[in-house]
Amino acid sequence: MPPIHQQILLIGAGELGSAFLPHLSTLPNTHITVGVRSVAKYTHLTNPNVSLLSLDITGPSQELAQTFAKYDILISATGFGQDAGAVTKLAKEALEAGKLRKEAGTSKLWFFPWQWGVDYDVTGDGQGLMPLFGEQVGVRELLRAEAKESHVKWTIVSTGIFMSFLFEQLWGIVDRDGDKITVRALRDWNHRVTVTDVNDIGNVLARIVTGDAEADDRVVYCAGDTVSYAQLADIIQRVKKQDVKREQWSVQHLESELAKDPSDTLKKYRLVFAKDGVYWEKESTVNHKLNISLIDVGTYARKILAG
């Protein structure tokens, strides 16, 4: 067996972390450690290339920085269900881990923060609607300002919305009621959204880690598809071989709905997604430049809606 020369710490084994693992674990001369709170819950993930580490990211920062410093690559897949300040705390711990690696004379720590979503540089905090989005902007600014001095290189992968969520009944964009389907447009029918399947995100991530893409100290993009809401309705109509009802939720309508229930997080998300920063051209993506084939909306729709 060839010697291991790259140690990766993957934080989290939820939907995204579990999708990353099969791709990362096939990288040559690489060992993956999955940091989770409950090791007993994830023993099924282990194999010769994958081990588990009991890890509480709410713990003391100095201890976590010392742990992170043992690894060459740190990938956060912790998800959105975190307390305020959690992503900033983790970024600061990664920066401290880089300093520890510098003192030890080892290579830079490569940090992939939890930014697997929209382009936060454009969305900002959604005009105060999404404090977590604002915090994500702060993480970007922190890394841009301090990473090099801290012996850290970083890569942010903007993925758009997860493909599965686009079709979630809860999201309300593709609304299935028995045989009847309503497709709703956020803002207008020409407004667009970028979506990527989580498994494909793992594929793109693994190619980035191998060094196939220019990704050091920058934001890169991937996209399974970028579609307008009109195109989405047309796709579903073709897949289902039936007419679909089309309903437009304008920005004014979304603002009115949120005003009725200002604490409704889902309504805040819909309003933010009716604005800019939630889509980009596929030609600008890592997967396009590397000719990586990703699942598109039509293929995904056929998989879950056909029949």
Automatic annotation (TrEMBL):
One of its GO terms (molecular function) is oxidoreductase activity. The keyword Thylakoid does not apply. Gene3D superfamilies: NAD(P)-binding Rossmann-like Domain, UDP-galactose 4-epimerase, domain 1. InterPro entries: NAD(P)-bd_dom_sf, NmrA-like, NmrA/Isoflavone_reductase-like. It comes from the Eukaryota. Residues 6-268 form the NmrA-like domain. Keywords: NADP, Oxidoreductase. Coiled coil: none annotated. Pfam families: NmrA. This is NmrA-like domain-containing protein. It comes from Massariosphaeria phaeospora.
